[in-house]
Amino acid sequence: MNTPFDSDTLAAAEVCFAVASQLLYLEPEIAPVAEQVASRQFASAPFGEGNDDERQGLHLLDGWCAVALNASEVPEEASADEAAARLVESPAFAEAVAELRREWLRLFVGLGTPEASCLESFYVEPNSHMFGKNVIAVREAYRRHGLEIERLHREPDDHLGLMLGFLSRLMAEEREAVEAGDMQQGAALADEQDAFLTEHVLPWLAPWRYAVEKYARTDYYRGVGAFVFGLIACYAERFGIRFDGKASAFKRRK
Q1: Which keywords belong to this entry (predicted)?
Q2: Domain residue limits at 58
């Protein structure tokens, strides 16, 4: 099953997956987080807000942003640019972002074993072996579309943030095919997304989300876990795949 998406829907999903990619892969820094807060980036999303998990994630993220804004004593009448500039100069905001940085490192990187690893290999390879067959398969998928990670051979390609960025790229390519009227190419790119999700993301997404939920201490990263899970679950429904809460697994409708 492959529900065709129009250009606008693909563009909306593309943007959301790109944001999710950055939330997981990039270490929090003051200026980008200040922009998130000042613009109220998480007040809404262009795709997937009908999903309960995504909506909960956005609520938690937006709530963290509101608290950070108030703690930094930014005037209500300040424009988004003015608010971002004030946040960058605020010691209280600097400490709030430092707390996020510590949590990102603890959850997703770890001095030893991260508490909520973002690597597919951690969940599916024997003994959590890094740079195994799954990494090779993911790397080949990237290369078919002219992509190569910056830290090749020094960092596993199967990081969830990288894979969400890759899916965003496939959505962009599908959108371009749809806009060009090449429906056959568009369908082929949709099928590739289906296969990539099914093989490399969905089998371990629930354990990852539960780990984030268990170990995250800030509403920001509790929100990230729920938002990412809900976004992917919502998108998977276009391929007839839904999350079975009782089985804690994604299943394709027959």
Answers
A1: Chaperone
A2: 7-252
CB 120 within 8 A of CB 204: yes
Label residue 153 by pLDDT band (50, 70, 90): very low
With the C-alpha atoms ordered 216, 42, 120, 111, is the resulting torsion angle positive or negative? negative
Asked if the structure places residue 35 within a domain, the reply is: yes
The pairs formed by 94-100 with CB atoms below 8 angstroms and a separation of 24 or more are 94/30, 96/68, 96/71, 97/28, 97/29, 97/30, 97/33, 99/218, 100/28, 100/33, 100/218, 100/220, 100/221
Tokens of 73: 């004593």
Q: 206 in a domain, yes or no? A: yes
Structure confidence at residue 152 as a pLDDT band (50, 70, 90): very low
Domain for residue 105, yes or no?
yes
Q: Which is it for the CA torsion 203, 64, 68, 211, positive or negative? A: negative
CATH number for the domain including 185? 1.10.3480.10
Residue 1 lies in a domain: no
